[in-house]
Write a structure and sequence with these properties.
Number of strands: 19
CATH architecture of the largest domain: 2-Layer Sandwich
Bound molecules: pyridoxal-5'-phosphate
Distance between the termini: 42 Å
Protein name: Branched-chain-amino-acid aminotransferase
Pfam families: Aminotran_4
GO molecular function, one term: L-isoleucine-2-oxoglutarate transaminase activity
Cofactor: pyridoxal 5'-phosphate
Number of helices: 8
Largest sheet: 10 strands, mixed
Structural class: alpha+beta
CATH superfamily of the largest domain: Aminotransferase class 4, branched-chain amino acid transferase, N-terminal domain
GO biological process, one term: branched-chain amino acid catabolic process
Oligomer: single chain
Strand content: 25-35%
């Protein structure tokens, strides 16, 4: 007798005409082949104060090829360097590309410990993105092990101190050659790592946003919930337009109700008061929102740490008009963006229909109180000060 899920997977296997799933080799971390960069060519650590986001890279990278006939090839860790691809490769023409962004932190408690923050969430999301654009899926835990090996090798380049970390960029591309538009029969994962400093060098710097309804980042039935490279290039021009009017980022609105979705490439939170009660709101995951790991972590920590007699934490639709009306009534308390790079990014005002909606900040500070608390709660877990083994992978 088959158990129900065994039966399901057998049916899936039998119905997979294209690939003989049975004989496809899975991704296996222990097979990794390591080639070290020559001693004389090794990069030295960059001074903390000289770090620029995404500019410097570590000495090694990870690559793993895949093809539809054999499955995953031997993973390789090798000196950081160029890729060589035929100009007809499908990634260049039809955007078979997806990526992830996560970080590794030097523990502030135990010198030798390195901590990755919820990498299982990033790997799950990476597999979802892959599935959506017909690129191969892989065993998340095996890729985490490989990334840990890569990071250990260049551990001397991870900057130390709160706000400093190693930004990890796993990427997958379709590498089939030829101009036909079809399922890629070849793919490549590569992972590169960049030592980074705090997003805001001198503490928070609150940003001003332009509520954007003349361009749409994502839509129902689209792929806004996937980290596909194709989602990002079209967002630069609206950002330049907003910048021309003096705003740093777009607050992406959607639809006739002008619902708030995200800010730039971050999720977004608004806090309101209503008498003695307070509410924290972020957009629901309806397929138009990137399912941020930081967003999820903030929701969980706020539900855990905020007094439930005062605070309600809601994932619900929120229109720019509601924000405007409640700001006018003095009910808007604070607002911030959330994402791996900055963790939280305080918002100070929002341009909408030629007027500015002012977002309160604490007296003499560049953020609201909750923004500050959230930053501390998450930072303390990332740097090993607060123990939370379900989230902090120490290695
Ligand atoms: C990556 C990303 C986020 C934030 O996700 P995290 O997992 O928290 O880093 C939010 N919105 C968009 C559009 C993104 O690409």
């Amino acid at each position: 007798m088959f158990k129900n899920n065994q039966l399901k997977s057998t049916i899936k296997l039998l119905s997979s005409k294209r690939f003989n799933t049975m004989s496809l080799k899975p991704l296996v971390a222990n097979d990794v082949k390591i080639t070290l960069r020559e001693q004389s060519k090794l990069n030295k650590p960059i001074k903390n104060e000289d770090l620029v986001f995404g500019k410097y890279f570590t000495n090694h990278m990870l690559t793993v090829d895949w093809d539809a006939e054999h499955g995953w090839h031997t993973p390789e860790i090798k000196p950081y360097g160029n890729l060589s691809l035929d100009p007809s490769t499908c990634v260049f023409h039809y955007a078979f590309e997806l990526f992830e962004g996560l970080k590794a932190y030097k523990s502030l408690k135990n010198e030798d410990d390195i901590i990755m923050f919820r990498p299982d969430k990033n790997m799950a999301r990476m597999n979802q993105s892959a599935e959506r654009i017909c690129l191969p899926e892989f065993d998340s835990e095996e890729l985490i092990k490989l990334i840990q090996k890569l990071i250990r090798l260049d551990a001397d380049l991870i900057p130390k101190g709160k706000g400093y970390s190693l930004y990890i960029r796993p990427t997958m591309i379709g590498t089939s050659e030829g101009l036909g538009v079809h399922t890629p029969d070849k793919a490549k994962i590569f992972v590169i790592c960049s030592p980074v400093g705090p997003y805001y060098k001198t503490g928070f710097k609150a940003v001003s946003l332009e509520a954007t309804d003349y361009a749409t980042r994502a839509w129902p039935g689209g792929v806004g919930n996937m980290k596909l490279g194709a989602n990002y290039a079209p967002c630069i021009k609206p950002q330049l337009e907003a910048a021309g009017r003096g705003y740093q980022q777009n607050l992406w609105l959607f639809g006739p109700n002008k619902y708030i979705t995200e800010v730039g490439t971050m999720n977004v939170f608004f806090a309101f008061k209503n008498g003695d009660k307070k509410e924290l709101v972020t957009a629901p995951l309806d397929g138009t929102i990137l399912e941020g790991v930081t967003r999820d972590s903030i929701l969980a920590l706020c539900r855990q740490n905020l007094d439930p007699n005062v605070w309600e934490v809601n994932e619900r639709y929120l229109s720019i008009n509601e924000v405007k009306e409640r700001a006018a009534k003095g009910e808007l308390i604070e607002a911030f963006g959330s994402g791996t790079a900055a963790v939280v990014s305080p918002i100070k005002n929002i341009g909408y229909n030629g007027e500015d909606i002012n977002v309160p900040l604490q007296e003499g500070k560049q953020s609201g109180k909750l923004t500050e608390d959230v930053m501390k709660w998450i930072g303390d877990i990332q740097y090993g000060i607060t123990e939370k083994p379900e989230w902090a992978r120490v290695f």
